[in-house]
Design goal:
Elements (H helix, E strand, L loop, with lengths): L2 E2 L5 E5 L2 H4 L12 H6 L17 H14 L4 E5 L2 H4 L9 H16 L3 E7 L5 H5 L7 H17 L5 E6 L1 H7 L13 H25 L5 E6 L3 E4 L4 H24 L6 H4 L13 H5 L6 E4 L3 E6 L26 E4 L14 H14 L5 E6 L16 H19 L4 E7 L18 E3 L6 E3 L1 H12 L1 E2 L3
Parallel strand pairs: 2-3, 2-12, 3-4, 4-5, 5-6, 6-8, 7-9, 8-11, 11-12
Antiparallel strand pairs: 1-15, 9-10, 13-14
The structure holds 5-hydroxymethyl-3,4-dihydroxypiperidine.
5-hydroxymethyl-3,4-dihydroxypiperidine binds next to loops.
């Protein structure tokens, strides 16, 4: 019996503004923290920047036509904050909004449901200069920006995502410094985490006030699947600690209105959390319509053994600074098995565990896989075609566990493949290809890979074929 998905299951692809748009100085757009960071020597592989990216800003119609040709039913994209509100304050710039209005109209004309992410890591530089996410005011600025975008597009966009992977914004941006803005302060990373939570809550309220009630609001978390290396109590405690810092720090306040029980004690050497004000948790804990989960790999941890060479194999870039405040007692290990071109272990069972975990932790809340995919060393063959059987296998195995999880009770409504096309992979530059569509970075020509055709067939039939 073939695995069959429900007929209304969303078959999507995902991208983000800075990774694909380019046109960084057009229409009044000002630099975001990623413009500044990528232009700082030594921050990205080969000095790559998103200045041109894959030129989606100018090729948007062609890209939407490609999605339509592939039969996709939803497209998750993000809005560039500094394109719409260049200083991060005040009224929206119509030229900036126009681009997203055209994009949404184009999608709707072709029967593709837009899923709009408000923040995918590109804070306006002016707001970073005013303190960035460690500053409380940034949350208020975000709510104001959300209201502007909600008022402009809420009549046509039904699916909204406040933040993408706030863990990366807080802990890679302000802790390990491998992401923009490249700060390395453990305390700032926890302040940023709290203010991102607050931003999510305030933006959710602002969106509800600005948009029709039918619209659905979600957040996309890169919830980690943290496995202890053994059942030794010290290893279990290490996994608990990292789970709180990776997951509970966001889903605790967002879904349950409270930070994890031990988080404040675990991080007491770093901060006293005085930046959490009365009423914040109430503001953060807003009813949601769905929870977005981004999944790529699992983490394997143990209590630290100072002599072990593999103790920082946590897959988040190289930095002398840890993205895990207060967790020096934890060691990370490379999980066994095959890896993608990112060096991330391939473990579909992690996605199953994640979906069932949130089915239990947030009963009744529909789930979306808002990102899943693999970087592979793709290259065109002599005939110009790009065959990527490893990606197809990755997608198939992960989608098979999505089905299993649904059979076990998980209310999964859709899946977004990361990514529509090859693009700027942050500090890795253009060296890592996640796309279902190959991009020739010289000509910017797009060529659907075999995986795109495979995924199109799945979207058409709803049936998961054998690889
Ligand atoms: O490219 C990123 C994306 O921006 C956020 N989630 C993970 C992807 C792959 O690293």
């Amino acid at each position: 019996m073939p695995d069959r998905f429900p007929s209304d299951f969303l078959w999507g692809v995902a991208t983000s503004a800075y990774q694909i748009e380019g046109a960084v100085a057009e229409g009044g757009r000002t630099p975001s923290i990623w413009d500044t960071f990528s232009h700082t020597p030594g921050r990205t592989a080969g000095g790559d920047t998103g200045d041109v990216a894959v030129d989606h800003f100018h090729r948007m119609r062609e890209d939407v036509a490609l999605m339509a040709e592939l039969g996709l039913t939803s497209y998750r994209f993000s809005v560039s904050w500094s394109r719409v509100q260049p200083t991060g304050r005040g009224p929206a710039v119509q030229l900036g909004l126009d681009f997203y209005q055209r994009l949404v109209d184009e999608l709707l004309d072709r029967g593709i449901a837009p899923a709009l992410t408000l923040y995918h890591w590109d804070l306006p530089q002016e707001l970073e200069d005013a303190g960035g996410w460690p500053a409380r005011d940034t949350a208020c600025r975000f709510a104001e920006y959300a209201a502007l975008v909600g008022a402009a597009l809420g009549d046509r966009v039904e699916r909204w995502i406040t933040l993408n992977e706030p863990w990366c914004s807080a802990f890679l941006g302000y802790g390990s410094g491998v992401h923009a803005p490249g700060r390395t302060s453990p305390e700032a990373s926890l302040q940023a985490a709290h203010h991102l939570n607050l931003a999510h809550g305030q933006a959710t309220s602002a969106l509800r006030a600005a948009m029709p009630a039918r619209n659905q609001i979600a957040v996309s978390l890169n919830s980690a699947v943290v496995r202890p290396r053994s059942q030794d109590p010290a290893d279990l405690e290490a996994a608990r600690r990292i789970d709180d810092l990776a997951n509970g720090v966001f889903h605790g306040p967002m879904l349950h209105g409270a930070y994890p029980e031990h988080l404040f004690a675990d991080t007491a050497s770093v901060t006293d959390w005085a930046f959490v004000h009365d009423g914040d948790l109430r503001a953060i804990h807003q009813p949601l319509d769905a929870l977005g989960l981004n999944y790529y790999t699992t983490s394997l941890v143990s209590a630290a053994e100072p002599d072990r060479a593999d103790s920082r194999a946590d897959g988040h870039g190289t930095s002398a600074h840890s993205p895990w405040p207060g967790a020096a007692s934890v060691a990370f290990h490379q999980p066994p098995g095959e890896r993608t071109a990112m060096g991330w272990a391939i473990d579909p069972s992690g996605l199953y565990d994640l979906l069932l975990r949130y089915t239990k932790e947030a009963p009744g809340l529909p789930l979306l896989v808002t990102e899943n995919g693999a970087a592979c060393d793709d290259r065109p063959g002599p005939d110009g075609a790009v065959h990527d059987p490893d990606r197809i296998r990755y997608l198939r195995d992960h989608l098979a566990v999505v089905r299993r999880a649904m059979e076990a009770g998980a209310d999964v409504r859709g899946y977004y493949l990361w990514s529509l096309m090859d693009n700027f992979e942050w500090s890795y530059g253009y060296g890592k290809r996640f796309g279902a569509v190959y991009v020739d970075y010289e000509t910017l020509a797009r060529t659907p890979k075999s995986s795109a055709r495979w995924y199109a067939e799945l979207a058409r039939t709803g049936e998961l074929p054998e690889v």
